[in-house]
From TrEMBL:
Residues 291-754 form the Glycosyl hydrolase family domain. It comes from the Bacteria. NCBIfam families: aman2_put. This is Sugar hydrolase. One of its GO terms (molecular function) is hydrolase activity. It comes from Dyella nitratireducens.
């Protein structure tokens, strides 16, 4: 999603006011089947650089850091079609629709040093360099490229808290490393509020910078060391030219050689003519320089770059090992790359001493668990987090504990909404952290205080100042004359309320269950039977006029969608929605209208995230992600199978443009993984998965309990796109859903595929997935 307009204002106001588990069975190495280039072009917003699963470091090339008005396509700092690299920075989001980060940018340079990036269209105008994709190597945990203008071979790898660089310079030429603390992804003049830079007596470079970006007042510190002594160094304060892009002057004379403070700092470190590669290691901390040094001391020992590259690859092999997939090389690359992208975030946001920065901007200490941040809740609650519950349940324990301590530190007593490096941005809508926690609890994940979790969920859902929850609790809907996007917010709140109710019921907290189960029916208050769409109401109870179901944009009734897309968002009560729409036939007819409509994509030119259109269905944005599975709930699962094939054929592919929309911290990729396996969590916080059809001939999920759940399909080809019969452990499965317990028990789910649809299978109401309301 694109958070830029939605999220900036509230977070700035708030800042001003505040002034992993071994798998049961070893698998073949999978890292070699991943192609990190997928999604680095177009609108995928993915980076090709080095990271480890859920690591603090994302060390990657930046081809551009445009100003905030033009930054959308560079949310990860890299666009495949760009001709130059301006440097390598240590922090990046994976597939976000908004961005920040790009911290601690370095660039190896040969010969004369220019202090500004320069113009990519004018070679030699700055420190950026041209490059050729033929020289790039992208692997999980490793990235390499040759910087053509300098003849430098750059190699990158990562450990959990340290980025490792190895630069091979051409012989006979002086080598330099530039450090620029000014650039930032989603950049604008004055973004850096303050920074400091120091060369310590032992040669360690340290510094911090504070920015007023997406999370205002974010501070990030670093510590950097080299494997060879510096011949000299210069530190610069460029405050007299804060708008540095396009700078044409001769440069600035260096100032204090060992320490600088200001808003526009750079350092140049000179090494003379090198006879061996220069290695650089960098650790970061959101707490302090001292903690960055401690991270470097503990996680950055020695200088064996190849050993760390090997360890990063092994970390990815272990993380990817829970699923074995058969199929063609192209299919396996697509599958394991999607799984790789689903395992990048949330990110570790805690130092080796257990300290981390909380949403109150204070330093806290994690006792007995790792603290994670980078939470794109509006996206990842749908499929990415359910996937991790299935594949890495022990990691989920730390995720839940991270959410709970963040709520305890929140000045507003709320669970994270869109947080990174411990700080809150208030981006997007809903309070979907409650769905992540409830989903974990319903599926048997323990290891945290469930009573405290319930208190945190209720506190979040009753904080009246958030998204006009006060009126929602009073009126049963969010009035559009009080709060933008009131229609979709009402729907999202109602689903989150249902999630709270499910966990409360499982815990025996009947008063909480009764209250939130009632709130979960509030979606009905924005349903307009006259038009057949969800619509926002005014405070006086009337629907807002005029009404156009095709309209989408900030301030409209819906979040990044129109009425055609959001009117299907009642995952907790699909049976109730079917009844409201007039029954099974009317429901599936309208679904057909959605997919078969002739739509001019230019209608969404002002909503960048509405991409991947099939009719009105927009796979490039999350509100559409469950819709193809809704035929299951109306007795026509064969149409779910049909629509899923359309989506898989059109929305995913090999190469840099292989994602039709932002990956959104793994959600787009997790959708692919579940759908390829043959089922999908339409309603997180239930224990059910709606069945589609598999897009791999065979897959084996190696569960943490020591069992294996196998999915197989035959015949597996384009001539047999429909499900004829399903068996679970050899017995016919007449229902169109799987229970979580079915998977955990191990066994085999076999799909017999056929050329024509089986219109009888799954038709009975008793075969359909669960819903709040009864089927009629």
């Amino acid at each position: 999603m694109n958070h830029r307009l939605l999220c900036s204002g509230l977070s700035l106001l708030i800042f001003t006011a505040l002034a992993a588990v071994p798998v049961a069975q070893a698998a073949e190495p999978r890292a070699g089947e991943v192609d990190p280039r997928i999604g680095t072009g177009g609108d995928g917003h993915l980076f090709p650089g080095a990271t480890v699963p859920f690591g603090m470091i994302q060390l990657s090339p930046d081809t551009a850091m445009p100003d905030f008005k033009h930054a959308y396509k560079w949310a990860a700092g890299y666009q495949y079609n760009d001709p130059t690299i301006m440097g390598f920075s240590h922090t990046h989001f994976s597939g976000s629709g908004h961005s920040d980060l790009g911290d601690v940018l370095v660039m190896p340079i040969v010969g004369d040093v220019k202090l500004d990036p320069g113009d990519e269209k004018v070679p030699g105008s700055g420190y950026r360099s041209r490059f050729d994709h033929a020289t790039e190597v992208e692997q999980p945990g490793y990235y390499a490229v040759t910087l053509a203008d300098y003849g430098v071979r750059a190699e990158l790898t990562a450990t959990r808290r340290v980025g490792w660089h190895r630069y091979t310079f051409p012989a006979g030429k002086p080598a330099h490393l530039l450090l620029d603390l000014r650039p930032s992804i989603y950049d604008y003049p004055g973004k850096v509020l303050w920074s400091n830079l120091q060369v310590r007596a032992d040669g360690t470079i340290t510094g911090c910078r504070t920015t007023r970006g997406w999370a205002p007042g974010r501070e990030l510190c670093f510590a950097m060391r080299f494997n060879q002594p510096m011949a000299s160094h210069e530190l610069y304060n460029r405050e007299t030219d804060l708008v540095y892009k396009g700078f044409k002057g001769p440069g600035y004379q260096p100032q204090d050689q060992n320490a600088q403070n200001g808003r526009a700092l750079e350092g140049v470190f000179d090494f003379g003519e090198l006879k061996q590669p220069l290695q650089v290691k960098v650790a970061v901390s959101s707490v302090s320089e001292a903690n960055a040094i401690a991270n470097l001391d503990q996680d950055g020992k020695g200088w064996d770059f190849d050993a760390h590259r090997h360890d990063a690859s092994e970390a990815w092999n272990k993380a990817l090992a829970p699923i074995d997939v058969d199929g063609s090389k192209t299919l396996r690359t697509q599958f394991y790359t999607a799984l790789y992208h689903a395992l990048i975030a949330p990110n570790l946001a805690m130092d080796v001493n257990g300290e981390y920065r909380g949403p109150d901007y204070q330093v806290h200490h994690a006792d007995g668990f790792d603290f994670y941040s980078s939470w794109s809740m509006w996206d990842v609650y749908r499929a990415q987090q359910p996937l991790l519950i299935l594949l890495h349940p022990d990691r989920t324990v730390d995720f839940v504990r991270s959410l709970l301590v963040a709520q305890q530190a929140s000045p507003f007593h709320m669970l994270p909404v869109w947080a990174y490096q411990g700080l809150e941005t208030w981006c997007m809508t809903g309070y979907h952290a409650v769905a992540i926690i409830a989903d974990a609890y319903i599926k048997g994940i323990r290891g945290y205080d469930a009573d405290k979790a319930m208190k945190a969920m209720v506190s979040t859902a009753t904080y009246g100042d958030y998204g006009d929850l006060a009126d929602y609790m009073k009126l049963g809907y969010v009035p559009i004359d009080k709060e933008v996007e009131g229609g979709s917010k009402t729907q999202e709140y109602a689903y989150d309320d249902w999630a709270i109710a499910q966990m409360a019921k499982a815990m025996g907290k009947h008063d909480i269950y009764d209250s939130f189960e009632k709130r979960a029916t509030n979606w009905r208050n924005v349903w307009d039977p006259k038009t057949g769409f969800m619509r926002a109401r005014l405070t006086n109870g009337k629907f807002r006029e005029p009404f156009d179901p095709t309209s989408a944009g900030y301030g409209d009734d819906y979040t990044e969608a129109n009425a055609w897309q959001y009117s299907w968002y009642v995952p907790q009560d699909v049976a109730g929605l079917i009844t409201a729409m007039g029954g099974d036939q009317a429901f599936t007819h309208k679904l057909d209208e959605l997919f078969d409509a002739k739509v001019d994509p230019s209608i969404f030119k002002n909503v960048e995230d509405i991409t991947g259109l099939i009719g009105w269905y927009a796979h490039g944005n999350e509100p559409s992600h469950h819709i193809a599975y809704l035929y299951d709930y109306a007795g026509e699962p064969w149409k779910t199978q049909q629509r899923l094939k359309q989506i898989m054929d059109n929305e995913y592919g090999p190469g840099p443009a292989g994602l039709i929309g932002n990956d959104d911290l793994g959600q787009m990729s997790a959708w692919y993984i579940f759908t390829a396996l043959g089922f999908y969590p339409v309603t997180p916080a239930s224990d059910e998965y709606a069945i589609g059809r598999p897009f791999v001939p065979r897959a084996a999920i190696h569960l943490s309990n020591g069992r294996t759940f196998t999915i197989s399909a035959a015949p597996f080809d384009d001539a047999h796109p429909y499900v004829g019969q399903i068996t679970l452990n050899g017995k016919p499965l007449d229902r169109v859903y799987l229970k979580h317990a079915d998977i955990l028990a191990g066994g085999e789910l076999h799909f017999t595929m056929q050329a024509q649809p089986n219109k009888d299978w799954g038709k009975a109401m008793s075969a359909r997935p669960a819903s709040m309301s009864p089927y009629h």
